[in-house]
Amino acid sequence: GRETRLRVVLRVRPLTCTETQRGDRQVVHSLRDGTVHVSAARHDAIFGFSAVFDAGTSQEAVFEGSGMRQLVELAVDGFSCTVFAFGQTGSGKTYTLMGPLTQSDTQAASPSLLGLMQRSFACLLEQSQSHGSDLALSASYLEIYNEQVRDLLRPGPPCALPLRWSKTRGFYVENQLSVDFDSLEAIADLLLQALDTPPAGSQRRRTSAHALNRHSSRSHALLTIHVRSRAKEGVRGARASLSPPTQGPQPSACPSKQGMLCFVDLAGSERVKETGSSGELSVEANNINRSLLALGHCISLLAKSGGKRTHIPYRDSKLTRLLARSLGGSGITLMVACISPSSRCLSETLSTLHYASRARRVTTRP
């Protein structure tokens, strides 16, 4: 019940081969004690965060240094926890959360490259084993594409699901599928499928190529892991249920705690002039930017409110409605800001840094 600030960490990706060949300068330099220095013509500024990870930082170091392990433990203890990555398109958000996109059933990524998601799953399952059989784990996975909420686990063509609100549950997605799992392989199968198999999980998520990113996410994706304590006689197994996961287990399961761990992979902000987008890509970009602006507006107001009761326009977008609890409610939130050090990306990098700096002033009451 104590007030706590959002934890915000920064990750600076290395210059890409294209940027190096083009002659881009590196304008972002990490300093000690969680600070970065932006040095360019007419721009000289220092920003501070809970932690800063430079281009040479390993995936494991990001997991440990960001406080992700503690977030997993808090979810097991019954708290609602959220981690989300944001930044310009091509800044490394999906890589930070999921690792390289080349991994599949037939070509697994090196363990050293696994992202925050897979490392958190392994940590969750370790916690489950240490608790005996009294923890039940389930997952739901959705995307927000062109302001439509779509279930990425439901079989068949993606269809829009209604977003509801109630006094007891806040904003929630009606009829969202929830799938139980009890092994690392089971949850990995939900997220990663070979390209020549029927689409499921992340393979159904909308991505496209443009001038700045060959695998640009065209939607915001939210993967939610529900952690429920239950009696040892509870039934374990891989099954699917259409019941909203927030309704909790049946009385026979003797629940004592119900936590949540939500991973939010935001689509990157982008300028149509830079990406060369047109037609459908341009429409997608406009919807992405509108929802990110709504999120930034909510964060700015939350940072200014100082804990006072202030109207926050969560209803301005589907994204802000689903993140309302994480940002200004009773959740615990970790934000991972991802930026490029390239001089060509300076404007978007500064925007992300200012955005992240404001978020550090937001407080919640877990």
TrEMBL record:
A GO molecular function annotation here is:
microtubule binding
Sites where the protein binds ATP: 87-94
Q: Which UniProt keywords apply?
A: ATP-binding, Cytoplasm, Cytoskeleton, Microtubule, Motor protein, Nucleotide-binding
Q: Where is the composition biased (Polar residues)?
A: 243-255
- One GO cellular component, as annotated: microtubule
- Is Cytoplasm found in the keyword set? yes
Identify the InterPro entries for this entry.
Answer: Kinesin-like_fam (IPR027640), Kinesin_motor_CS (IPR019821), Kinesin_motor_dom (IPR001752), Kinesin_motor_dom_sf (IPR036961), P-loop_NTPase (IPR027417)
Could you tell me which residues belong to the region Disordered?
234-255
Q: Which ranges carry the Kinesin motor domain?
A: 5-362
> Member of which family?
Belongs to the TRAFAC class myosin-kinesin ATPase superfamily. Kinesin family.
The protein's name: Kinesin-like protein
